[in-house]
Amino acid sequence: xxIVVDIKPEVxxxxxxxxxxxxxxxxxxxxxxxxxxxxxxxxxxxxxxxxSTLQELTQFSPKIPLLPDEAVSREGxxxxxx
Length: 82
Description:
Elements: H1 9-22, H2 26-37, H3 46-58, H4 74-77
Helix pairs in contact: 1-2
């Protein structure tokens, strides 16, 4: 099925930028966003879908703070418990 949607040039530019970051074509990316907006499970997208999913999972990883080793030790996890 084909749907034609008129969008502002700046919206198209941003959509195009986000699609490039995800490594997919703009039409594919727009379809993914529409599927997600309707809460319908997206179709399998093969290798590109896997790559896109992995990029989504890692996009914020540089912002995750590093924890000291003691934070994930048994003592660190249960320090507030007897």
